[in-house]
Each structure stands twice: as C-alpha cells, then as structure tokens.
Amino acid sequence: MAAVYKSTAFVGVFVFTFVTLCLFPLPVAGITRYYKFDIKLQNVARLCHAKSIVTVSGQFPGPCVMVREGNHLSVKVVNHVPNNITIHWHGVRQLRTGWADGPAYVTQCPIQKGQSYVYKFRIVGQRGTLFWHAHISWLRATVYGPLIILPRLGVPYPFPKPYKEVPIILDTEAIISQALQTGGGPNVSDAYTINGHPGPFYNCSAKDTFKLKVKPGKTYLLRLINAALNDQLFFGIANHTLTVVEADAVYVKPFETEAILLASGQTTNVLLKTKPTYPNASFFMAARPYVTGSATFNNSTVAGILENKLSPNSLPSSISVKNLSPFKPNLPALSNTSFVENFANKLRGLATVHSPASVPQNVDKQFLFTVGLETSQCWQNRTCQGPNGTKFAAAVNNVSFTTPTTALLQAHFFGKSHGVYKTDFPREPKIRFDYTGTPPDNTMVNNGTKLLVLPFNTNVELIMQDTSILGAESHPLHLHGYNFFVVGQGFGNFDPQKNPNNFNLIDPVERNTVGVPAGGWIVIRFVADNPGVWFMHCHIDAHQSWGLKMAWIVLDGDLPNQKLSPPADDLPMC
Ligand code: C2O
User: Fold this and answer.
1) Which run of H or of E encompasses 341?
2) Which of 28, 142, 250, 251 gets the highest tally of CB atoms within 10 A of its CB?
3) pLDDT (tens digit, 9 = 90+) per residue, 471-480?
4) What is the Å distance from ligand 1's center to 218 Cα?
5) 133 lines ligand 1 (CB under 6 A)
6) What is the whole-number distance in angstroms between the Cα of residue 549 and the centre of ligand 1?
7) Cα end-to-end span (Å), the chain
8) Which residues of the chain does CATH 2.60.40.420 include?
9) In angstroms, what is the span from residue 392 Cα to ligand 1's centroid?
10) Distance between CA 204 and CA 10 in Å, rounded?
11) Cβ 501 vs Cβ 459: under 8 Å
C-alpha cells in the first residue's frame, strides 16, 4: 500500500539547494576537528508540498563530518528552535566519554532552546562509515548526516584504492505525529529518498533525483547509510554487482552481491566497478523495503541514477552520445527472508583461524532477551487504535522502557539513582513460552526504567529472541558505546543445547546494529570495557518509542584509564 502524498498544487516558493555531501579527500589531518551545528528551521518544497523542517545549519541531509582515526572531534551544537535537541554519533565507541553519546535522558539532558553543548570525543580504533543523528523524539527524521572516518594517514584500505568515494544516505520522508497520538501504528512514509532526493517514481519529483556521474572502468567506494526511521532497505544498482568491504565501520572479508540489505542504523561500504563497455549509459540505483511482520509499509521504490560517461571528445565515433533510458535493478522481493539470511551469512570479519577475532571465547554473564511488540492499556478516557482498543507497546523481556525525566548517566555518576532507575532488569524472560508459536493470553507489557549492571571487563553473551506476540518481525537492535560480535543466528526458538555448537568464534562480523531475524534468534558477544550508561534499542523509531529499549550500566575498572571521565561544565541540565 503505497502512500505517496498526492496533491495537485505544488508549492514551489521555497528555494532550497542540496549541498554537496562530503569533500574527499580530507585536506589536513589535524589533531582536533571542529564543527558547529546550528539547529534551525528550514523551509523545503518536497513531493508536491511545502514544509518546515528542523535542520543542522539549514542543510538536509546535514553536514558531512569527516575525521581520521585518532582525531579528536569537537562539535558545538547551538539550539535555535523550540524543540529540545541532542545529537548522537551513531556507532562511535565513546571510550570513557559517554557524556558525548547523545541519547536524551540516557547520557544527557536535552539542549534547550537558546542553549548549546559541545560534544567532545576521540575516534579510537575505528575507521569507515558511520553517521550522526538527533536522538530525541522523532527529530532524527531530518537531523542527520554522514560521519566518515578515514584510516590514519599512510595506512591503506585493505582493498584497492578507489578512484572516488561517495556517501549515499537512504532515508524516508516520514509522517509520524499521528501514531503517537492514537496509539496505533505509524503512518507509512511519503517516500524513500537517496541523499535527500525521492527520485523519478514519485509525484513532483522527477527533477528531484540523485545523479551520480561516473567514469567508465573505474572503482568507486559507495558509503551507504540507512538513516530511515522505520525501514530496513534493499539497495542495488542495475547491471552491476557490488563488493561489500565494510559494515558499521569495521572491515569485512570482501564478497560480491547483486543487492545489499541495510537495517535502519546500519552502514555498509561497497566497491562499485563501473562498466568499461557501456559508455554513456544510465543505470538506476534503487532501494525498497524488506518487510516482515504485519505493519503497514510503503512498498514504493526510490531511485537515483548512475550515469556512466566518457568525456565527449574521447567517444569513438560509432557510439551515440544520446543517453539510453536507465536500466532497472533487480532487487530482492519485499519479504525475501532467504536473501537476508544468505547475506547475513556472507558477512565475516577479516580474522582467520591463525589470527582469530577478539571475540570473547569464554562467557562471564549470559542473558536471554525476548524482543517484540506487545500491547498496553490505552490512556484513560481515550480510544486507541492498537489491537482490541489497546495501545501498541514494545518490550525487552516484557519490560517496556519508561524514559526518565533526568539523565541516567548523571544519576549514576553522581550516585543519585533513587527515584530515577532501578537495576532489576530481568536477565531472562519471566515466563517461558513458544516464542515463535502461539502467543500467551496476556500480551500486556510491564513499564519501568530498569537497567542491568555489568562489572568492568565482563565477557557478555546476549541471546536475543524475536517473539511472535503481534506477529514475527525483524528488529534491528543497536547497542551504544560498543561493537559486538555476531556469533550465531537462526530461526525458531534458540536451543541452548544445540545452537552453541555452531557459533562462529573465528571470524564473526563485528557491528553496532544487527537485525534479530523475524521469528528467530541472534547471539552476540562483547567485552564490557567501556564504563558508562549505554542505551540499547530497536532502531525502528516506532518500536523504540513504544518501549523496545533498555540500558546497561558498565562500572568503572580499577585503573585510572578504566574510569568514566567527569562531565564538562556545559552539560545541559533538565
Ligand atoms: Cu542511531 Cu540510539 O541510535
């Protein structure tokens, strides 16, 4: 059910230019890179209508932040709009700098109108593509941009040096406010976009198409980012295979594929080799959703165009200069779960038997989390549009997270947790049932601000099990402050006897966001070596707002360099 906004009157009064996203290569490798983000409203004309959106410095997508591994970053965020704001550096490990992580009421109170906050942190041991986005209510719909980490000067990529690098951000034009007021599902988005452009398949957008002009026979590095609020997306380019080389700012063993899957919050670098033999041909690059569960979705396709051009004077006379109409890519079907499973199996770290990954081989603490949609009581004297007049809710181990009114990290650091949070988050579900079979009769969630405490350097194993309570669905779980290794996954209920025999403890992929398979399970491992309070949540914003989130407290270690640093003076107050 496509819900492209239809209107006959195109309001084209606003002039809005899309800025060049990133400039490659980074000119200088300074020690600290400074940026200033002015949060302001900007009028835009999109998809046949005009609207005012919250932006960083009037740009959409927002400015490209580019650093080298080892650089410090200092980003001054000044809020000029009535909405409270915070910025999250999605995927940055934030070693001992949790105060700069960004999720509202988790690591900081929001930056209020007229106030500012400087995010200060260092990029350590990471290189590749990440992104930044607002982390409060639904503002990340328009407040986001690429975060590109180049390797240290003189350190090459573990793949042939690309001719050029291009960031490609996939997103949605979302309508969201209604869902939060009715307790129902979110409205489907207006359209998907590539680098902010909806492309030729939507109304009023033929001219609003992302075009990438390339030269024949060259290798390009595409830095793909899924910044969409609520969608997992397939991406591909007609008549081309892509070579995956990195995921979530960690290199992977290269493999070729026709299409890639990007869950919301995931990033992937691919090499694209342009055709030497198709001079002056155009190819669509396109994205459309991977759909699980029963939620309404927008099954439309966003397209951009790859223009393969020889320079006119190098054209052999026999070839026509006129552009052919673009070739279309063959993307996996909307619910092609076997493609998704296959793609997940191909993602492997660079490690080998002789130099295995640093994945914990032994586990100190094991947790089993059920994740999924459930229901909760409608507000008093209101009608709700969830199942049987309830309100949609989502939970981890049946606990739907209640956002506190003061920041958890402050409460933890200053020893003032009383009345803010409890540390009794369940290590496993209270009731056992066939998670992927018939749901229990009672599908109501419990509410609370519950956290789990981990001593410094704990080796954690976390099994995440999808439930089918309101339909099996793939949930992209994102952990702040950490990368984790994906050691196993499968369908049905996790079997603690059988499944661990097949865990990959040699070259598992390392990432910060992973899709729990629809009607299945996934097992991740990480070492709790970064003290602080770390949010973990479904990166589908609708599910997050329904409560599919929790937080970990990782305690300080004994050594001075194992302790959370104190906050700066400009840390916002609630
Ligand atoms: Cu990209 Cu907590 O999110």
Assistant:
1) helix 337-346
2) 142
3) 888 999 999 9
4) 34
5) yes
6) 11
7) 42
8) 4-346, 365-562
9) 21
10) 8
11) no
Residues 4-346, CATH architecture: Sandwich (2.60)
pLDDT for residue 313: 44
Apex 297 CA angle, 292 and 299, nearest 5: 95
Q: Is the pLDDT of residue 17 over 50?
A: no
Q: Which atom from ligand 1 is nearest to the alpha carbon of 91? A: 1
Q: Higher confidence at residue 205 or residue 221?
A: 221
Q: How far apart are CA 536 and CA 401, in angstroms?
A: 11
Asked if residue 192 lies in contact with residue 198, where contact means CB atoms within 8 angstroms, the answer is yes
Q: Is 103 near ligand 1, meaning CB less than 6 Å away? A: yes
Distance 88 CA to ligand 1 centre (A): 7
Q: Which residue has the higher pLDDT, 85 or 175?
A: 85
Q: How does residue 240 score in pLDDT terms, banded at 50, 70 and 90?
A: very high
Cα of 201 vs centre of ligand 1, distance in Å, is: 30
- Do the Cβ atoms of 292 and 476 come closer than 8 Å? no
Distance separating alpha carbons of residues 137 and 229, to the nearest angstrom: 11
Burial group, residue 477, by CB count within 10 angstroms (0-12, 13-18, 19+):
buried
What does the alpha-carbon distance between residue 399 and residue 327 come to, in Å, rounded to a whole number?
Answer: 48
CB atoms within 10 A of CB 506: 16
Atom of ligand 1 nearest to the CA of 513: 1
Give pLDDT, residue 21: 61
CA distance 333 to 457: 43
Q: Are strands 520-527 and 459-466 parallel, antiparallel or unpaired?
A: antiparallel
**Of 105-109, 129-133, 223-227, 230-234, the least confident:** 230-234
Alpha helical stretches, state H, 440-488: none
Q: Provide the pLDDT for residue 1.
A: 27
Confidence of residue 3 (pLDDT cuts 50, 70, 90): very low
Quick check: 4 pLDDT over 50?
no
> Residue 442 CB: number of other CB atoms within 10 A?
10
Per-residue tokens: 370: 């059920």
Pocket lining: 140 vs ligand 1, CB cutoff 6 Å: no
User: Does residue 529 have a pLDDT over 90?
Assistant: yes
Going through 143-218 in order, the beta strands assigned E by DSSP cover 144-150, 164-173, 191-194, 211-214
- Which residues lie closer than 8 Å to 77 by C-beta, 6 or more apart? 37, 39, 85, 87, 111, 116, 117, 118, 119
114-128, 164-178, 318-332: which range is least confident on average? 318-332
Q: Is the pLDDT of residue 188 over 70?
A: no
What is the assigned CATH class of domain 365-562? mainly beta
